[in-house]
């Protein structure tokens, strides 16, 4: 590989006390930026080593002194107590049973926001029938109905910043636990403005203030029992933004009040994977406006000091909503996404605005990684880990430009892992090469536009919330991972956006997920107009691809409202006495690694079964007017399934497959203005490939994990 | 085996032209009754051979001449046409597309009972917007909404009696297809009274008129495509009882009208496995009263001629409802149930009244049996078939007295199967021996009363509708099959009967089935009082056993309303972001053959997991007050699972297991007044068993399939 790819676009973590190592690796990796991390500092020598300096700030923590004087400004959350059986008319409910008590303390001044529920009947217990006891930290209910279960929704302060809590507990830290501020309060805003101003003055060497991230963490409610340590975890719920002040401001802005039960929701809460009610969406936008407006104030301070402001797109990202209009008003100069997967590259790249788009690669330089597996310690193989993450990331990098990559963590842990150091050097070169091609050329795309229809639309473009390994069973995250490396335009549509005009440019519309999920759409499918518009669109030539329980909602003549288009429906037992069409299988080369879904049945004899498992249709196709419906019982990412998905998406639309390989393990991208074909081998072994080009076929081999360039006009 | 068991209580089919064979087998089997069958007649010689004579009558068919003159009296059914997409405002819908047209003809005079639906919106199309064309046999809709789907609910005559149709088509019969009458019409009633009177006069040799069965067949709607020949089949739906007259009489009796859509129900119809709305239940009782009152008139005629009237409990049984009060008023002298399984023995035995309870064993003397497998033809092994059915039946015969057994079909087909003839002779002896024990003694029962809670209660005691092989995946039918041979009192409760008083005598209450099914209970679980009453009952010491999705209904704080008692709930995806309690497994000897159910989770750390599969709890137990909740993810009948079920039901209630074996393949019954233990081996191989008795243990062996008697005081 040419020497021109040896330097730049690479951010490394530095570590005081390891100045020699830091500078040696900076040289090896071609770093142009050095950063500090949670737990590491940069010495004077490193700050002045000729690299730009990123300084990490977690704006809402590290203010314990202020918080100890103003505990009422801590962040809060609604919790539901355990449910207690009424064996007599007086029921006493301890608030924190089952919760990790170091995370929470009750907000005793918030009782007017609490609610007590008969969880047997779903009815609220009148305020006069219960009282809170400060001393016992419990609620006593009077006049309970015998043999019903009761619980209390109450407001608790979160007295330990969750990421700090996690690192503390995981690594048995001895440091002082960090508390967190809620910037919803004007007093906190004033304090933070001051604090940041002082910070900027005291850090002239900092080029980029890297916010990690903004104000509100993803929801992470801990339990008291090691058999169930994390009671609720969602990357994109808004539960951690709640405070009495927020509720009051919301009520005055929207003209109606949110209650504790809107958030507790019978104990189900509101994970972003389940379609939200309008109230919750109102609250999202309300919070988004606040988060972005106060973030702008902070960024303005940073800019006043001639520094840039980047934001880390993780952890305390809630309310930021990078796809929102408000985000654009903040004025961030860069956004940094940590990535395990291809879809996260697209997620980062899709953030609009003239920002620097930077990826933080994995593994993080830490003794242990995912699920406690060893990384930079005995038994770990960080070089192989890095390769495996990289090949996922690289597929997506072929399709979309990214400005920078980098690492994070504790640099000296790389000692003893020279393979890893070499691998990173190689990855950095590959990255620069691909970035260079994007600079010199567009990348060839197949003339096929894919739409993804979800409750969220663009707001959750290229994500289902969180990393792939958090919810690997969601069909859509698997589809996104496949699409991340495919040469299509992809557009994300919400149900409001299902209009004839918006659909006009879409060739294939995908709706994928389990019933009720925000990915399938849940109650949005009660809108007849959606069904009608899509039916007309397919009839005119569109392809509607449904996966798992697409368009599923109860109360209609089909369980899947798009069943007439898809040609399949999903029985919930009500058709136990109906006959089922025998599932014949058409001659088809399609062989997805796919499981049957119980209950899937053909609505009549017109639906073609492209693949079947145990007499259940798992892939079907049905002509509908000039268009077609396609059904898949599930979708799981793999190179082979991606290959098959491609043929499903293009079938009947794309006649000639150009610039793609015949080998699912090798992806190909063509940069016409650079006259270059890029082949990337996602497997550890050498692969042979045929690549179809306009005037024939190129046959070649690509080494394991390698990136190969072929000149081609 | 003693010679005393050589004769009686056995009904055989006779066959003209095979008089020698018939009499020889009568001798061999000890037959005291001879019968005719569909397709066979009895000659003078057979009628006067000293056996009582059963004559088979299917009262509503064999009247083609009358029907040809009065086609308006044929039976009917509501059908839904196919669903047609509106690509313009005029939509034409052919009525019979997809239906087997030899079964149906449109009732052109019934248009006022028809309805047209927009199946996209669930809205009815106003009557003015559609018209029926006699010539094209289609409905034309005007002013349709584009891209919606439409269908027509219409009333069709059923012009071929379904059992005759089945035999015709299956056996390529050449005979004239038989039509069927609807006795709802007074003119038909008059005709049938006359006809039966004449028949009785013409058949002095008949001792027992065996009605096969009454008026309305189980629902069986046929399709036109061999890939889906049976569109809807339910043993216990009332769709085949409908006529304009019935609808009018219902309206005047109940003060409200039933519509076609009450029966079509968005195309789902109303299988008896799904909880019925009150309207449908009203219609059931309305029909039951009519069926039983007219049946009584017919039985009275039979009695006037000094004959007895038996009814076959199958085929055209709808409306008869042997567990209804009205059934008792008919005055039948006997009821005959064909049996493959143990639960069917209990179903027959449970029919109240001083009737002869008779079983017709399988295999039926026919060339092919279940699913077209060979029986009395090359490749068949009817002797082994008979043994395998018999061991299922025999388990239940140990627990409840039955008066008679018998066979049906074409006798000469037994030629060439001497093993079969011997097997039947042996079965008949075993039967007489067990019957004799019941005559001389009570049978020992464990002091444990099991309640079965379903939407149907007693009305579907010992059945889920139809034979085991029709719906082998229903948990309850599997439980009933196990219970059929267990030494408990079993009571069937409907939700109306869940009262403190009724529960007092119940030790263990079982609720088993998928969500929405009539076996689980569906919307009945919306009644808070049910939940409260059961919660109190368990807290006071009861055991609530839930299987699959017990107490499941949507809209509450748990998906299973009894979750606090069971200690488990079933997630539908809404808890995707909740933590799940780690499933540890208690030391337990329990090893059911049982599959996991996705979504099942422990509600807290208090629930004991007795068995787990892939980290999913499949059997759990939870203390609740003085009682307990037990959950099973599914239940499938097998001797081994029955053995495990027994220990689950008795656990904590029964201290000492008396008169049961340690071998799941060998059942034991104790007849104290006869001082006899009976051991029955359900397997083909010899088995060793230990039987716990009051003062020790008996160790013995039982030959394959054999019944062994042991004297014991």
From TrEMBL, chains A, B:
Where the record annotates domain Lacto-N-biose phosphorylase-like N-terminal TIM barrel, the positions are: 8-444
All copies of domain Lacto-N-biose phosphorylase C-terminal, residue ranges: 659-707
* Spans traversing the lipid bilayer: none
- An example molecular function term from Gene Ontology annotations: 1,4-alpha-oligoglucan phosphorylase activity
Write down the superkingdom of origin.
Bacteria
> What residues does the Lacto-N-biose phosphorylase central domain cover?
449-647
* Name the UniProt record assigns to this protein: 1,3-beta-galactosyl-N-acetylhexosamine phosphorylase
Q: Which organism is it from?
A: Sphaerochaeta globosa (strain ATCC BAA-1886 / DSM 22777 / Buddy)
């Amino acid at each position: 590989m040419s020497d021109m790819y040896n330097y730049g676009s690479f951010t490394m973590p530095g570590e005081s006390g390891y100045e020699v190592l830091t500078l040696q690796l900076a040289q090896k990796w071609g770093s142009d930026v050095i950063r500090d991390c949670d737990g590491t500092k940069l010495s004077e020598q490193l700050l002045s080593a000729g690299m730009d300096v990123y300084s990490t700030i977690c704006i809402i923590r590290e203010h314990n002194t202020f918080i100890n004087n103003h505990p009422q400004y801590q962040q809060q959350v609604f919790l539901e107590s355990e449910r207690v059986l009424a064996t007599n008319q007086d029921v006493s409910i301890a608030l924190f049973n089952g919760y990790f008590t170091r995370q929470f303390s009750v907000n005793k001044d918030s009782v007017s926001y609490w609610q007590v529920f008969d969880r047997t009947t779903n009815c609220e217990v009148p305020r006069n029938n219960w009282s809170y006891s400060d001393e016992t930290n419990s609620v006593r209910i009077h006049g309970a109905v015998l043999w019903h279960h009761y619980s209390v929704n109450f407001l608790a302060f979160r007295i330990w910043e969750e990421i700090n809590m996690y690192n503390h507990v995981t690594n048995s830290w001895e440091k002082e636990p960090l508390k967190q501020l809620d910037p919803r309060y004007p007093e906190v805003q004033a304090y933070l403005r001051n604090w940041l101003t002082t910070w900027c003055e005291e850090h002239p060497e900092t080029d980029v203030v890297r916010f990690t991230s903004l104000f509100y963490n993803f929801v992470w409610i801990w339990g008291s029992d090691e058999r169930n340590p994390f009671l609720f975890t969602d990357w994109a719920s808004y539960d951690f933004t709640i405070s009495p002040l927020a509720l009051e401001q919301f009520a005055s802005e929207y003209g109606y009040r949110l209650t504790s039960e809107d958030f507790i929701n019978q104990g189900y809460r509101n994970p972003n994977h389940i379609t939200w009610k309008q109230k919750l969406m109102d609250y999202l936008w309300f919070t988004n406006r606040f988060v972005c407006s106060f973030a702008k104030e902070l960024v303005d301070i940073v800019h006043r000091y001639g520094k840039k402001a980047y934001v880390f797109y993780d952890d305390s990202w809630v309310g930021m909503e990078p796809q929102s209009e408000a985000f654009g008003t903040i004025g961030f100069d860069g956004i940094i996404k940590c990535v395990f997967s291809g879809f996260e590259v697209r997620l980062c790249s899709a953030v609009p605005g003239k920002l620097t788009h930077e990826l933080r690669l994995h593994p993080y330089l830490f003794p242990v990684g995912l699920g406690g597996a060893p990384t930079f310690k005995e038994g770990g193989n960080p070089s192989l880990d890095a390769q495996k993450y990289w090949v996922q990331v690289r597929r997506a990098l072929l399709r979309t430009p990214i400005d920078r990559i980098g690492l994070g963590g504790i640099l000296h842990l790389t000692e003893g892992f020279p393979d890893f150091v070499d691998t990173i050097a190689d990855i950095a070169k590959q990255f620069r090469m691909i970035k260079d091609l994007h600079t010199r050329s567009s990348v060839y795309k197949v003339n096929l536009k894919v739409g993804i229809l979800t409750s969220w639309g663009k707001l959750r473009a290229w994500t289902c919330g969180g990393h792939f390994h958090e919810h690997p069973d969601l069909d859509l995250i698997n589809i996104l991972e496949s699409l991340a490396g495919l040469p299509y335009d992809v557009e994300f549509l919400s149900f409001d956006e299902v209009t004839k005009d918006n659909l006009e440019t879409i060739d294939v519309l995908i709706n994928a997920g389990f019933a009720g999920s925000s990915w399938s759409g849940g109650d949005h499918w009660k809108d007849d107009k959606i069904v009608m518009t899509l039916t007309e669109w397919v009839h005119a030539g569109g392809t509607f691809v449904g996966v798992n329980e697409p368009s599923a909602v109860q109360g209609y003549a089909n369980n899947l409202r798009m069943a007439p288009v898809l040609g399949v429906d999903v029985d919930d037992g009500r058709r136990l006495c109906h006959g089922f069409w025998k599932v014949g299988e058409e001659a088809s080369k399609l062989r997805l690694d796919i499981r049957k879904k119980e209950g899937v049945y053909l609505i009549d004899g017109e639906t073609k079964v492209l693949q079947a498992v145990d007499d259940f249709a798992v892939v079907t196709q049905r002509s509908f007017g000039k268009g077609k419906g396609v059904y898949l019982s599930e979708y799981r990412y793999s190179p082979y399934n991606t290959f098959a998905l491609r043929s499903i998406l293009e079938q009947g639309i794309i006649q000639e497959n150009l610039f793609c390989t015949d080998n699912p393990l090798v992806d190909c991208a063509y940069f016409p203005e650079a006259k270059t074909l890029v082949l990337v081998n996602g497997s550890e072994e050498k692969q042979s490939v045929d690549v179809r080009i306009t005037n024939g076929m190129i046959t070649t081999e690509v080494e394991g994990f390698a990136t190969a360039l072929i000149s081609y006009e």
